[in-house]
Amino acid sequence: MKGRSQSPPAVPYSEMVWSWIGSFIGILLVAVCHWGWALKGLDMVMIIGSFGASAVLAYGAIASPLAQPRNLCGGHFFSALVGVTCFKLFPESPELASALAVSLAITVMHLTRTLHPPGGATALIAVIGSARVHDLGYLYAFVPALSGALLMLVVALVVNNLAPTRQYPEFWL
After folding, report:
1. Is residue 116 in a domain?
2. Gap between the Cα atoms of 19 and 29, Å rounded
């Protein structure tokens, strides 16, 4: 089978290093907030699996339209709202709630011009997550979804602009 184009060139080692630094600091910051001082004594969640995929985009594919601040923050926020709504509407049917959460999140992200692939996982986590996630209700859209994305954005703004060969963001709105 033939593709339509060639594979992209190899990424320079310096880009790999900056991607590593950004992702390490970004995820560490969110994890420290989750397990450390920020939420100590509260039964809240700060780190969700979809942040791993956001780290790939925000630190490893910084020129992608899907990695820009509007997409990073809006994608998680709107998808979380959709996911919580689907869970609340269909708590006895996780199969239906899961499918609706992801597909509606994609639609809402398209409508709001905030398409961010990890947002699909954020919506799904709202349905399949633990009781801790479910107990958050719509707060889940703010903590962890939006606040975690904002923390990762701050790190992306700092780290991605320290390197002379990088400039982030490509656009804000």
Report:
1. yes
2. 15
Give the residue from 69, 67, 31 showing the smallest Cα distance to 154: 69
Structure-block tokens of residue 160: 């991605």
Q: CA 159 to CA 18: how far, in whole Å?
A: 7
Contact 49, 121 (CB under 8 A): yes
Extract the runs of DSSP E, i.e. beta strands, from 47-104.
none
Q: Does 172 reside within a domain?
A: no
The answer to whether position 142 is within a domain reads yes
118-152: pLDDT as tens digits = 999 999 999 999 999 999 999 999 999 999 999 99
Backbone angles phi, psi at 95, to 5 degrees: -65, -50
Task: Give me the domain span that covers residue 30.
Answer: 16-34+43-162
- Chain segment 18-58, per-residue pLDDT in tens: 999 999 999 999 999 888 766 665 666 889 999 999 999 99
Cα–Cα distance between 28 and 34 in angstroms, integer?
Answer: 10
H or E element in which residue 79 lies: helix 69-89
Q: Phi and psi dihedrals of 61, rounded to 5?
A: -135, 55
